[in-house]
Design brief:
The protein has three domains: 36 residues, no CATH class; 67 residues, no CATH class; 274 residues, Aldolase class I (TIM Barrel). 29% of the residues lie in helices and 20% in strands.
């Protein structure tokens, strides 16, 4: 477990190296940190031309044959099979996520090796509360997302196109070496929807595993079954945002559908991968007792009581600046509804120092992990068990 002092020292070191504090948008200074130089920043023509020329072929797509096409070029249609959008693209077109392009009949990934945001976070910020608590997570994102969530707090990243930020190529081993340099035990794919860079993600995770570094995914869960199976084979933990138990909410607020997300959660729950779930509670949109109870009932019935469930406070951002922050009382109501349904590890999120941030033993009800903000202040676990009553606490602790 990394201490608060050690974490801040690590973050300061990274910020100083990369030329600033906070979330790092990749820059020549970050390139120099990874490789010792910035020679790869010499792009030809336009940056988009460079992206298209260097983009590797994507996984999870198929050609679509059109009968009676006017020319061979018009017949080079592809369908992306990565997420539930199932985008069909003519030559030169991109999918809804903007990161995958049909280039002469081949689907290419424009974001492979192009991280636009890198930061070191406490793993609790993801949030993971039952996966290596106190660890530093080397976090990265590319541009792009298949959803259009009106409340997105990372919209500058998720709703960006790959060409919006000129980023030189960083191979998977460069990310792993950077995480090793700052002694981060976890690499986190986060901020945007990492499914859009699944080829890069899985290659990094495979290299990281060889070096004893864990990999976790922070996702909306909108991917298809086959790519999720590949990710589960190389990842150690997944946090899914279950935004609502309402298809209308997904359609009107996120530009997506509920059913694929539920399927993904069930698939992860059946795998060996650690799972946590977050529900961002948005005033007037998904905060009714009926909607909260439906979500809680589904989790309890389909994935069981030991999956941590975070009810997280909404803050006005992006296209929903007209709504107020979620009342704490609403989050507390959801918390108690989950407890009454038998969920063992509900949490109140985005409310610093709230008692709902602590982990309680479901047997003796004592605090086994006490938190202040994103930092651990008290740990009453030994061998994954409550120190007070020896009850096993679900999670990954070492």
């Amino acid at each position: 477990m990394i201490s608060r002092r050690d974490f801040l020292a690590t973050l300061a070191k990274l910020a100083a190296t990369a030329g600033g504090a906070g979330m790092i948008l990749c820059s020549p200074s970050w390139q120099k940190f990874l490789f010792g130089d910035n020679s790869a920043l010499a792009f030809g023509d336009t940056y988009l031309d460079e992206l298209i020329r260097s983009a590797p072929k994507a996984r999870y797509w198929k050609p679509v044959t059109l009968k009676n096409s006017a020319s061979p070029q018009e017949g080079k249609i592809v369908q992306c099979l990565l997420c539930a959008n199932g985008c069909v693209m003519a030559n030169g077109q991109r999918g809804k996520c903007r990161t995958r392009m049909n280039v002469n009949g081949d689907l290419k990934s424009l974001v492979y090796g192009r991280p636009i945001s890198i930061h070191v976070d406490p793993i609790e910020k993801k949030p993971f509360y039952h996966y290596l608590p106190g660890s530093a997570a080397f976090s990265l994102a590319t541009a792009g997302c298949p959803l259009r969530c009106k409340f997105c707090q990372n919209w500058e990243i998720s709703q960006a196109s790959p060409e919006d930020n000129q980023i030189s190529y960083t191979p998977p081993v460069g990310i792993v070496n950077a995480a090793q340099t700052i002694k981060a035990p976890v690499i986190a794919f986060t901020y945007n929807e990492p499914t859009v860079f699944t080829e890069y993600l899985t290659d990094i995770a495979r290299d990281a595993k060889k070096q004893g570094i864990h990999s976790v995914l922070i996702s909306c869960g909108f991917m298809n079954e086959a790519p999720l199976a590949e990710m589960c084979n190389v990842l150690d933990g997944v946090k899914i945002d279950l935004k609502s138990y309402s298809d209308d909410f997904y359609r009107n607020v996120c530009g997506a559908q509920l059913r694929p997300v539920l399927r993904s959660i069930k698939q992860i729950a059946k795998s060996r991968v650690h799972l946590e779930i977050v529900n961002l509670v948005v005033p007037t949109l998904n905060d009714s007792d009926k909607m909260l109870q439906g979500l809680i009932d589904w989790i309890a019935g389909e994935v069981g009581p030991d999956v941590p469930v975070h009810f997280t406070r909404f803050h006005p951002d992006y296209q929903l600046r007209n709504l107020p922050p979620t009342p704490v009382a609403t989050l507390e109501r959801a918390y108690h509804m989950a407890m009454s349904k038998g969920i063992h590890y509900p949490y109140v999120g985005n409310v610093p120092d709230h008692p709902g941030n602590h982990t309680y033993c479901p047997n003796c009800k004592k605090i086994v992990i006490k938190r202040q903000g994103f930092f651990i202040t008290e740990m009453n676990l030994a061998g994954g068990r409550c120190k007070f009553c020896k009850h096993k606490i679900a999670g990954v602790w070492a």
